[in-house]
User: What shape does this take?
Amino acid sequence: MGKLVFMVHLIMMTVVAGALVIAIVSIPSLADQGMKLIPWAAAVGFVAALPLSIWISRRIMQQTRGA
Assistant: This one.
């Protein structure tokens, strides 16, 4: 399951960090501070994606176990 968690984490990390960066760039008051906030968004995306990827990997394993 470790390899599956790693692969799902790569995808989820990109999605979460990308959504945060889009939010930063889209909001004018945050866009002014983009150079400081975008690295934080990447770090938050990395950390926040870990529990999501573990949950998704468990769901995938449950669905494919009987197949």
Notes: Helices lie at 2-26, 28-31, 34-65.
